[in-house]
């Protein structure tokens, strides 16, 4: 199939850029040094590529992602890097399953759900999930008393991964990891799971990095000067032109908007509506012409689409289902 | 099923509020005075309720919505209120199909696609699709020369529908409709299709109002003091609590974020991540507790979900597929 034959809007990935990103990360963090986060892509076909490059353990953000990865035969070592109040769906999986816990209630849920292994999730500065570092040892003791195997700790420095200046990013990461190290000293275990695309080569504590966005990248991370290439755009059709602006068929239901407007090469984006993007192009466009719209945030963009089309030049060489959507 | 048994995050609608909204609109704009826009809800089951109340014509924003409505037997009078560069999928439908056109190219597409009827789409002030009012007559002549039936004009005052003060909203609507009336004088035809939830009772020109959001409403429209009740929220589980904040399992992939953060009663929302909302509650919450998260913009929220669950008190009384997603 040709790119021109795709129905629009269509989520497309440049295969060469994607493969470059996967290879660059596999070289920097070989094998189990990377635990790819599937939330960014929600696609078992892409995860299979990562596994083929040596990364056999994955992390997920939702129960549906865990179920889908297990069903796809990618369950060698699955971490739900998130808290759940009901873990029964995890206990039913045919896979090695570890879940993050940060409270007595989530430990109860792991026990009740039949999940044998946990990581103690520690708040390292991002106000989201995770216990205070000084509570980690007590939670690990409780988990062990309840019969769980505590593999170690987890702590995501999400407030640091997007800091533009590399040295400041490193310092914020280091401060976070000091908190995680203190927790780990109380908890023990082999695993210190942390990091993301923005700190993949700055985090010196983590035994495994939880990066996901590096594979497709997005315009927010692209500003950091990382050695990964923007690979993911929404292929769109120009449906209306006027003397001062043009409109394409890619809107709020095809784009994650929390990081702001998408970008279009050679154009200034004005705004998006449900099924439209209005923009001011530098050159005259004609109705029916196709353009690439680059989402500001890939993760919630991918979650709107049924398929990711892989392209080489003008050819669509493969089409992968986004099969881990929903909950 | 009980509300407590729903997997979270889950899109829920309060059935009493939904029915109130549908009835209030049917009273204000009976029968063909309203052409409900299905883009807001993407749900044929909900559209069937609107049809049962007397609104037999609908408008859509995408080809998939048109196909789904036709397949559901709701094709008595379907308007694609949007431009397409390729209309062949429309021509194949077993339904009465009208498509908006705003250029010679989109007229060509209607002809080539076998779509017999069109509306001339006019830019009435929102820089999106639509021809300049002074071009409308020329386009109508062209369409008729090409063998198309021109039913009239369309012009969406999307820049006016959200103006907070009613009188200013009315004035902006009136100015837009003056442009549409000028175009209609050139074009002719029985149909003047315009309006939205914010101007449903202010637009005095339109023969039919294209409102959609009124059925579920959202927090942006709720500020206008309209007689419609917020009906749609995302039912979520608290998964982590700390002394100063709590976290629930409803994030960027469960919420349209272009209008900003969602709201939670009795709490201040701090921020959303992919699968989390962090917020500061007024009272202590416990892990496992369920809360309602109110999206700022319903349309792109609905598009993330597979089903809309209808609730009465603690009971889930029905569950409707969001069957018009995608393109």
Structure report:
- The structure is a homodimer of 327-residue chains.
- Chain A is an alpha/beta fold and 327 residues long.
- The first copy, chain A, has 2 domains: 102 residues, D-serine dehydratase-like domain (Lyase, Ornithine Decarboxylase, Chain A, domain 1), CATH 2.40.37.20; 202 residues, TIM Barrel.
- The first copy, chain A, is 27% helix and 24% strand.
- Chain A contains 9 helices and 15 strands.
- In chain A, the strands form 2 sheets. In chain A, strands 1, 9, 10, 11, 12, 13, 14 and 15 form an 8-stranded mixed beta sheet that branches. In chain A, strands 2-3-4-5-6-7-8 form a 7-stranded parallel beta sheet, covered by helices on one side.
- In chain A, a hairpin with a 4-residue loop joins strand 9 and strand 10.
- Chain A is elongated, with a radius of gyration of 21 Å.
- The two termini of chain A are 32 Å apart.
- The mean pLDDT of chain A is 97.
- The interface between A and B is large, with 61 and 61 residues.
Specify which chain pair forms the largest interface: A-B, 61 and 61 residues
Largest sheet of chain A: 8 strands, mixed
Determine the CATH superfamily of the largest domain in chain A. Alanine racemase
Report the top-level CATH class of the largest domain in chain A. Alpha Beta
Stretches with pLDDT under 50, minimum 5 residues of chain A: none
Percent of residues of chain A in helical segments? 25-40%
Instruction: Classify the oligomer.
Output: homodimer
Structural class of chain A: alpha/beta
Mean pLDDT of chain A: 97
Net shape of chain A: elongated
| CATH topology type of the largest domain in chain A | TIM Barrel
Structurally, the number of domains of chain A stands at 2
Report how far apart the termini of chain A are.
32 Å
Compute the number of helices of chain A: 9
Rg of Cα set of chain A: 21 Å
Order of helices and strands of chain A: EHHEHEHEHEHEHEEHEEEEEHEE
Strand elements of chain A, count: 15
